[in-house]
């Protein structure tokens, strides 16, 4: 199965699993909405109709009293309108599942309708005895019976509404529990699918990363044995990795051969040129005229620059090819620092730069380093500091003991500084930052690359911090005791 197929299957499965609870919840919400609409259209509407009917019966009671006193046609017409309205409301109750109550109320309304004309005629005739009798034995009992039926219907509707609300509450609780369980189950299944998908992708990635790290550390014999047997993209990538490692091994051999040839083929003619220039300077081949002396000095300077560049380039090539071996031995740290202080003191006086060296008392008396290489690193960093620091500036060398049996050295200057975006590349071969216009002399772009390789070969780390216009600080962390080349080990971290 290809990687794309795995991703598609995994993502589709996760989507289906997560959409399932959502569909269930949405369906349940629509059902609850339908039930709520039905409750509004039946029970609540029935209560509204019964409330209007009760108000209408109360209006009939008032109109009946008004009829007894006013005895006019307008009161009688208003009473008939109320009776007609009550009759229509009673008929509408049948639509709300209240047929019995609708029939009883309609019967009472019809009795009231039958008693009203006789009561009106008796009131017009002034027969108060008949009026009172009709009101007491026909109108009022029918009205009271209708009112009691309305109240009973309201009670019935309330009970029915309460029961439906209870049912809906139970259903909501069930839907909530079911949704939560479904969601948790979906999350668990989605997590399992994600773990399977992640592991199927992350394992070969970790293996490839380990291979890349091994190759970066110089182990070109590393092979990804489990992965090439796979048929997916990782198998193809592993096969390409093995082929790359094989080609790098061949290139490394060619590179080592080039270093060997270059060390003989380049240094020898340059040394011959410098030797003959020295013989010319000594007058072995005759007197050198004043004009020729100027050309001679230029040739000597350029030949020495060329020799220095070749040595630096060969140093870089040797370290990259694994041939830049260290020769660590015991040396006095205080003596190393004192020699550097004396060497750069004259330069500091000439350029009017405040040069200070500070040591912490806890520093070890003796370290086990390659003195020539470390002296080259510190000399290069101090030379750069003096090169980029203007008159009146400061160059400082700090040494202190770290907690993990290591020494921390910092070279700080108040020079031009390095732009932040260029800091990650200052240790690259031939790279020079934009602050070269502030330098007192041009560089080759190899010094920091060599310094980094020497420090890492000692098992240490080098870090640069810089602010344009403020200054630059190089920090080096080295273990007190170095037994050999440490390129395969994790470098010692530099404290920030």
Defining key terms:
rod-shaped, two-stranded antiparallel ribbon, single chain, Heat Shock Protein 90, 7 strands, Four Helix Bundle (Hemerythrin (Met), subunit A), 496 residues
**If you consult CATH, what is the topology of the largest domain?**
Four Helix Bundle (Hemerythrin (Met), subunit A)
Gyration radius, to the nearest Å? Answer: 51 Å
Identify the CATH class of the largest domain.
Answer: Mainly Alpha
Strand order, biggest sheet? 2-4-5-7-6
Strand-and-helix sequence, N→C? HHHHHHHEHEEHEEHEE
Apparent shape:
rod-shaped
Could you say what the CATH architecture of the largest domain is?
Up-down Bundle
Q: How many β strands by DSSP?
A: 7
Report the span from N to C terminus: 47 Å
Strand fraction band? 5-15%
- Characterize the main sheet: 5 strands, mixed
Mean pLDDT: 79
Residues in helix, %: 55-70%
How many domains? 3
The count of helical stretches stands at: 10
Walk me through this protein's architecture.
- Helices cover 67% and strands 9% of the residues.
- The chain is α+β, with helices and mostly antiparallel strands.
- It has three domains: 3-191, Four Helix Bundle (Hemerythrin (Met), subunit A) (Up-down Bundle), CATH 1.20.120; 233-320; 329-479, Heat Shock Protein 90, CATH 3.30.565.10.
- The strands form two sheets. A five-stranded mixed sheet has the order 2-4-5-7-6, covered by helices on one side. The chain has a two-stranded antiparallel sheet with strand order 1-3.
- Strand 6 (461-467) and strand 7 (471-479) form a beta hairpin.
- Helix 1 runs antiparallel to helix 2, helix 1 (3-70) runs antiparallel to helix 4 (128-216) and helix 4 (128-216) packs parallel to helix 5 (233-265).
- The chain is rod-shaped, with a radius of gyration of 51 Å.
- The mean pLDDT is 79.
